[in-house]
Please model this.
Amino acid sequence: MAVAITTAASAEARARPGRRRLRALLRRPTFVVSALIVLWWVGAAATWRLFGLNPYVNTGHINLAPGWHQLLGTDSLGRSVFARTLAGADTALLVGAFGCLLATVLGSALGVIAGYFRGWVDTAFMRLFDVLVVLPPLIFLIVVVEAFGASVPALIVIIGVVFAPGIARIIRAAVLAEMGKKYVTTAKVQGESAARIMARELVPNVLPTIVIQATLSLAAAILMTATLSFLGLGAQPPSPDWGLVINENRVYLESAWWSVVFPAVAVGSLVVATQLVADNLKEVWS
Amino acid sequence: MTDAPAVQVRGLVVSYRGRSGPVTAVRDLDLTIAPGESYGLVGESGSGKSTAAMTLTRYLPPGTGVTAAELSVAGTGVLALDTPALRRFRAGALSVVYQEPGLALDPTMTVGRQIEEVYRLHGAGRAQARARTRAAIERVRLSPAGQIAKRYPHELSGGQQQRIVIAMALASEPRLLILDEPTTGLDSRVETEIMALIDGLRAELGFASILISHNLPLIAAHCQRIGVLEGGVLVEEGAAADVLLAPRHPYTRSLIAALPDINAVRPPRPAADTAQGPLVTVEHLTKRFQQKAALSDVSFTIGRAEALGLVGESGSGKTTLGLSLAGLTSYDGTITFHTEDRRRGRRTLPRVQVVFQNADSSLNPRRSVRQVLARSIELLGGDQTVEELANRTGVGPDLLAKLPHELSGGQKQRVAIARAFAGPVPLVICDEPTSALDVSSQARLLDLLAELQDRTGVSYLFISHDLAVVRQVSDRIGVLYDGELVELKAAEEIFRHPEHPYTRSLVDSALALRQAQAPSPAPAPAPDFGGVARAD
Amino acid sequence: MSVLSDQAAALAPGRRPGLWSGRRSRVLTLLGRRLIQIPVVLFVVSILTFWLIELVPGDPGRNALGQYATPAQVRAWDVSNGLTGPITGRYLHWLSDFVSGNWGTSFVYQVPSRPLVFGHLVNTLFLGLFAFVLLVPLALVLGSIQAYREGGRTDRGITIALMSLSSVPEFVIGVLLLVVFAVGLNLVPVESGAFATGDFAQRLQVTTLPAVTLAVAYLAVLARMVRTGTAGALTAQFHRTAVLKGLRPAQIVRRHVARNALIPTLQLVGIYLGTLLGGSAVVETLFNYPGLGALLVVAAERKDPVLLTDGVMITGVIALLALLLTDIGLILMDPRIRFEAGES
Model:
């Protein structure tokens, strides 16, 4: 009887590891709160136009403090800080999400290939990384953005290319650990093709690492996008992009703190929430 | 006080918090060990033998509950000690020699300083501690002591590391030495040397010892009394010879029955088909790693339906030889298969399959047994269904839907074997297939391998460090030493007339470890490699 | 250049200490090897930078002379500043000038580039070291507290707090600090630029907020590394050996835990040291601090190839030297580590 119960329980555990993990995640308050924050900003980016908010129009009141009339006040050009803060989620999420997706796909492919074949592919890749470590990433990014422009598609490609080596390095390490295991050797001995070993044997076993890296780089990509526009290299005025808004309004910090603080809280909350989602995933998965 | 027993335990119960409620690791244990006595505690993994011994040091994971009517070492009641007293007790009364000496030593400190630390703790001055350390290193027969003391643990071999741990343990002149699987993971020759060293030091210094091991012959050869633990219960206790020759408890009996019998030879089989010539010819096989030769000029053949055994210590090149045959590494020399290529589509089907030592890593953790076997049948061009294959290799039908982490070590290894037999492959290399398993699983797997060979006519290259295991399976046995094939002859011949000194030492230590089991009039002398341990 | 040693190879048993195994000789070997590697890496970096800048659209001559200059004037300016001709020739020309110390004139500031870069570098080093001095002890304390309370409430609390704090963008932390300490409490000026060249006390005062901002950004990861290293050393079998030897807790921490726990941390510290000393573009821009990072941002934005190449090279040198320093530290702490090429 006891045996039968154990088998049934383990069968259930096996059948739905995804659901079990989800349940474990939902029991974590930090995960629930941060996931809600991420969802809020995704919602804001997708729907602010539907509510008739206009982040570009002058309301007629300059540097109005937060109050009943204007929930979060107005900025030095009389635009609604509330509207601008919600609308600012656009670029960050668009560039962050797609840039991170590109980086993950590119980085995982590179990492799996380098880890599986070793040899010169691997060596060339590692040496390149040594050089990239020396280049200050932001300066590198600045030069690249100057060279290729700051349109949204260009930013996505740039974020993807800049983040891919870091992801590749971690995936490669995970693949190397798997390569030491005999199931890979056995697959080779059985005459399995390289492509199939990578796709069927290796990728499923490093998938948790890939997902965790993807979430972590999502946070980093959002941060990087905001930083670029803060430095004046991403979105251009009159865009309500958070980084840009903070940079534009920091000279009014003493007279209109709300025009800086609310976008700052917005970008901070989104990055922190994404990071915490990643961290929770990591803990539940490993 | 000195007349107090080295260990006095009554009614010991140890429990810890498991996933589903408390688990009792040791149940109602009584144990008395006299001063200077050598006591052996045997049991399979999870029997509570290590927990019972570590309770004597009171070093247990947090949350472990210990109760005992009495628990004393050299007259000191261990459970009543406060923190400073416990520290003094650990410093003076007992010492431990651990299973993995490489991990037990601090990697960032020279081994000399790690031993000195103990002398300093007992009040020696700096110069005095250094001199004593040198003497201690000499006492465990490492030389030159001055140079050894300056080395870091990673600069020593496993055997040398264990000698350092022993020197460190004995520096405090303990009344009791706990030996927790001290030779597991070491080569059999090093094992023999280490055990002889400990026996000699006990005779000289007069400490009592508890030897914990899953290896019954080892315990029998080095202990005066034996206790057998099963599921935390001491099921049998007595003089070593009595327990081994006349076991009373069924569990002890099953342990003994499962031992590979050193005298058992594989029953003669219908003569292998010699008319067709050998299956594989290996000529002048040489493999170099950087400057060092892992294999030098090795030549031999494997017959059809023959089982060729290959023994050698770690680093002798036996695994490299297997990898070369499987085509997994480059080499110089020639390996010729006298078979026709079997093709399926554009692909040539593999001629060699390998069963590895570590069953944990040889199965993809994300694929079920059925998926693994089905794909293997496809790849190896087999004409059987998964169910037929599972049935033939003793993989229960209930296991097919399971993932590797739900299987036991023995079950995993069965799946690994089934995978190798998924198609008609002429040669299967077994690389230490049973050394990670306990004796009873080992015996069943060896039977399975023999049966599969009788049925399919496959040839084996059976690689192991354990001569007794190899003998059970093999028709002929080859001995690898430092990359050279120093001897190759019929299995019984190796035992009867070992020629090479290394073969002789292997046979002697195999017999020495099992001599208590089958008492022979003349005990085999301990192999002598020149008194002082070689810098191996 | 393999920064991390191959543990598996380094741990191979039976490795006999030979002529080159003493600490001093291993440090000398490393120095010798880096003496070759560092110029090679810098060479690659310079090519990469030069090529990337070439791709940047824009016309430095037009920028420098303004919109009323004739095309001929712009052309003459380009020629006199070495901006014409094939890229290889210009690169080699630049390289020989750079190596001989003749770094040219910044287009944007119209002053010699070398004193400009070094002046900003000094400010950046001051800020970076200040941040480093705040960061490392704090990370050590927090990380080891967490390790000794592993899995407990304190541990998890510190983790979440640090994680949240460190993921907030630097410019957000900076803004919030400014709101509180400059606008609210009026303790420091909103802009630190004007005071960064004053006496030491004044410098310290204006550098505090930028330094705190930088330190906060790196704190979480470093503290986590300390925690992992310490927890690893505490659960290691050699720790059990030390306890069962009967050593006093202080001796165990000093002799066996500390060194082993710090080894993984040190690798990260080296990378951070390089990053901090190389200048933080964001923090320096936010606080208007005259550092190398902010200078490079201006150089990139206003297309000043001279300043940009020189600045990137100096940042690279600083990062490589910081890594070298760390690797020497690692050799002194971990006898197993070997920096061998091709073992990554």
